[in-house]
Amino acid sequence: MNKVQEIPILIENLVSFAYPELQQSSISISWGKTSSYAQIQWNRSKDNISIKISNDVKIWHEAGIIGLISHELSHPTQKGRVLSEFKTDNDVISRGLGPYLAIERLFAGKYIDHRIINGRDRYLGYRSIRNQLTNLETQQLDTLLSRIQLAPAKPHIPIWQSHDTVIINDEHRSNITIEGHQFLLPNNVHDPDIKLVERNNITLIYADDILVGEYPVKDV
């Protein structure tokens, strides 16, 4: 069984051991061409959750993929209508999956925190995640790094690629959140193909080739 075929089993195990509140949800997984590492979509009742992972992630080690999926699964468990990447990352750590999240951030090129929406929110970088781990978790992380032969190093030029895309479907209207920026989707757009295009230091968001919003390429 290859890495792609193992993903549904990984999700089943993660839900069973770390996300019991999602056991009644139908979770589907797919691979494809995306502008982010992953795209997650759910309805307000959370009956159906779909996760699309970028084909670029197929080269990652399984530990990094577990970290990415854990982050995605922590999104729909958060309460309130305002999404917070910081709270989502901390939720992953609180569930004992911090070592995998730390490895995911190395593959994503985020050694330091990636601040978004003008610093009001952020994705935790490898260094911040490691500082929150218990001694046992730190040992687990180091064992994984040794097994993968991955040496943590701060990139000379940080990677600012969008980490993930979140789509929440309401009865009448859906909204999309990217890098902390939230936009409404047109009424007739459902389960859209999301594309991010950078022009003149602005990221343009297209849903099924319809422009739905824009935001600065890099928040500081």
Descriptive account of the structure:
With 220 residues, this protein is α+β, with helices and mostly antiparallel strands. It is built from 6 helices and 11 strands. Helix 1 crosses helix 2 and helix 4 packs parallel to helix 6. The model has no long low-confidence stretch (mean pLDDT 90).
Concise synopsis of the structure shown:
With 220 residues, the protein is α+β, with helices and mostly antiparallel strands. The chain contains six helices and eleven strands.
Keywords:
220 residues, alpha+beta, 2 domains, six-stranded mixed sheet, three-stranded antiparallel sheet, 32% helix
What is the topology?
Layout: H1 3-18, E1 26-32, E2 38-43, E3 48-54, H2 62-74, H3 85-94, H4 98-107, E4 114-116, E5 121-123, H5 126-132, H6 135-148, E6 164-169, E7 174-178, E8 181-184, E9 194-199, E10 202-207, E11 210-216
Parallel strand pairs: 1-3, 2-6
Antiparallel strand pairs: 2-3, 4-5, 6-7, 7-8, 9-10, 10-11
Helix pairs in contact: 1-2, 2-3, 2-4, 4-5, 4-6
**What about the largest sheet?**
6 strands, mixed
Structural class: alpha+beta
Fraction of residues in H or I helices:
25-40%
What is the string of helix and strand elements? HEEEHHHEEHHEEEEEE
Give the overall shape. Answer: globular
Question: How many helices?
Answer: 6
- End-to-end separation in angstroms reads 43 Å
Mean pLDDT: 90
How would you describe the oligomerization state of the chains in this entry?
Answer: single chain
Q: How much of the polypeptide forms β-strand, as a percent range?
A: 25-35%
List how many beta strands DSSP finds.
11
